[in-house]
Amino acid sequence: MEEKIKEIIQQYKGDKSYLVPILQDVQKEFNYLPKDALCAVSANLSVPISRVYEVVTFYKAFSLTPKGRYQLSLCMGTACHVRGAELIASNISDILGIKEGETTADLEFSFETVGCLGACALGPVLVVNGEYHGHMNIAKSTKVLKKLGKKGATDDE
Amino acid sequence: MMSKMKSFHELKSVQERLKASRDPKKPSVTICVGTGCLAYGTQKLVDSFREELAKRDLTGKIDFRTSGCHGFCERGPMVVIGPENTFYQRVGLGDAAEIIDKTLLKGEIIDRLLYVDPATGEKIVREDDVPFYKKQTRLVFGLNFKVDPKSLDDYLAIDGYSALAKAMTMQPEAIIQEVIKANLRGRGGGGFPAGWKWDETRKADGEPKYVICNADEGDPGAYMDRSLLEGNPHLVLEGMIIGAYAIGSHEGYIYVRNEYPLAVSNIHIAIQQAREAGLLGENILGSGFSFDVKINRGGGAFVCGESSALFASLEGRAGEPRAKYIHATHRGLYDKPTNLNNVETWANVPFIINRGADWYCGIGTAGSKGTKIFSLVGKINNTGLVEVPMGTSLRKIVFEIGGGIPEGRKFKAIQTGGPSGGCIPDKLLDLPVDFDELTKIGSMMGSGGMIVMDERNCMVDVARYFTNFLVSESCGKCVPCREGIRRMRDILVDICEGRGQEGDVDLLEKMAKGIVDGALCALGNSAPNPVMSTIRHFRDEYEAHVREKRCPSGVCKALITYSVDPEKCTGCTICAKVCPTKAATGERKKAHVIDPEKCTKCGACRESCKFDAIIVR
Fold first, then answer.
1. Is the ipTM of this complex over 0.85?
2. Strand, coil or helix: B433
3. Cα radius of gyration rounded to whole Å, chain A
């Protein structure tokens, strides 16, 4: 891990002002920001760990916990909101049994809501591992989850 | 790779050579690959076009171009066939072969891919004749059609960077005077005159001076800056270099949202190309002037669109703003004089330099010159990016260009200015849109998001939505914003959930005043706008929630019940099928019922009912 982090920092020539992009690259590498990684960034960039932690907890893009195999991002931009994104969010939460921002215990699904993705014509939009599913509605979101192997409440009986 | 150009003369001859090599009569295919169209899966269409062209030995014989966003996102994937500019919309991902064989080779029109004007039923062949485009003034955004964002040649072939060459023959002060005269106002929200900012920064003591492009477009529902940056990055870059030259800056930054990967990648490529061509870096075009640009990706914090928070983020810290009694033009990034403008503002600069302030002032209203790009989204038929002269009426934007409200529903309000803006009711639809008029009625221009709402949207819910957004985006530094907005949110949640009390609306108004006066930065002191404007124009909806515990639009879950209209229900059983709690039941071909005890108000039945038989009250 240390080696990889040194390599990333090297790409930014060890410039402290690139702390945010450096952490973004580290997160991309490890899927989240493990504690050891933060310590390594702190040591190699000569930035106090408290500062690193402050930055990590300030910006939404960072996660201190591992993400699931399927990362679901539901757009909550205004255009999606007025087209009923909130109802879809509660449907997904209900089916997965987790709140937004959480990951299922089996590390299969992470569910987050995000600010505008700028694909408003397709709204409401659900992104699964980078793939866009547009014109979402409640029934469709259930279908998407079902396809990924998660059975909805309606199928229990 | 282009060799380094060392003089204005050399630039001119490269432009001429490229222009001469382009034949406007040559058959061409242009496919929009903006983020919106890519989300439709357009990349597959592009690949299949390349493959089919190669199969027919046509590669190189036709101009094949992938371009940035055309703006009509509603109708993607979009393909334009030249030289006639035949416009195909909602193209199937497997339609490439047919388009090549019929339209490109034989000139036949494929009927089913044409746009049909819903107002007249007429099929429209040419792209420029589509009403959505025809009624716009596509000055800045229009260039997106003509260039592949990854090609410097394309940009040079439309005389790109000639404004830079012209500017560098001018005195820096003269450039600034031209921009002041053009009254170019900041497109990012505040509408501050860009020329004055440039002038202040130029005159300020301290070195180095920084020039920054703010591409942290955080307003939900606004994506024009992204589309400019990813669709025509050289235009933005050219504006920045001109600004840097006028100000006397040698170092610049582009701060762009990490959520915009395509924009990051395209501007990255553009910077590389510009450096290699001698348009950026040391001794630009042999003029002796040097300027370089770095890219910094944001970390996903709305507050970082605020200039002082953005500086903190650029310095590698948490993005907390500071009080602005010292202007950034004197002490900004690293406490040095800094000039910050947003993407669209920079993109306007080359036009002003090329054609002059007098020409620019011919567009727009007395106080707001030029055009503005809006992203028209929400409950609207033609979702997309719209560029119109300042002063165009909301009615024209919504009904003529936007094509009105889907499913024949009634227009209720349009929200402008993002979370800092306000909601505008139908009685103000004839308002000419410019910086000052929007501010007068309690909204603002913001970065240009326009979210259309219909009768099924609850205005209290919308106010709660924006306030909730701002609660989670408040950086927490100052108390009025951190605690005040949260408290307002709590009151709004109470109202939406049926716990509203007499006097709550007055209290909201009082708190709003306190926050406006007390908050440290623009995020805080504009945060009450969505609440204030909805109270101002839709007070009756608040009162229905508080006094009658009723949500007239049928949105607020705690205040509504679902039932079935037995007159309309055909007994198709779809509601029973989709209901996750088995609250909707009934026999085939007989009217269904919903058990209010079991119903969780998830909305699944309403969205799936084809007969509009679900009543929400």
1. yes
2. coil
3. 18
**pLDDT tens digit string along B77-96?**
999 998 999 999 999 999 99
Least Cα separation, residue A7 to chain B (angstroms): 19
Residue B584 neighbours by CB under 8 Å, 6+ apart = B564, B575, B576, B578, B592, B593, B594, B595, B599, B605
Return the structure tokens found at B113: 């891919």
Point out the residue among B318, B383, B451 whose CB comes nearest to the CB of A78: B451
Chain A interface test: which of B38, B377, B477 (most A C-beta within 10 Å): B377
Residue B345 region by backbone torsions, left for phi larger than 0, else alpha for psi between -120 and 50, else beta? alpha
pLDDT computed for residue B585 by the predictor: 94
The Cα–Cα gap between B437 and A153 comes to 51
The answer, yes or no, to whether residue A151 has pLDDT greater than 70, is no
- Band the pLDDT of B324: cuts 50, 70, 90: confident
Average of per-residue pLDDT across B448-461: 94
DSSP codes of every residue in B237-296: HHHHHHHHHHHT--EEEEEE-TT-HHHHHHHHHHHHHHHHTTSSBSSGGGSS--BEEEEE
Dihedral of alpha carbons B273, B279, B281, B285, sign: positive
Query: Do residues B329 and B200 make contact, with C-beta atoms less than 8 angstroms apart?
Result: yes
Share of chain A above pLDDT 70, in %: 95
> How much is the average pLDDT of B359-376?
95
Q: What is the pTM of this model?
A: 0.92
Check residue B202 and report its DSSP letter.
H
Residues from chain B contacting residue A121 (CB–CB below 8 Å) = 36, 73-74, 76, 377, 383-384
Stated length of chain A: 157
The residue in chain B having the minimum alpha-carbon distance to the alpha carbon of residue A87 is B602
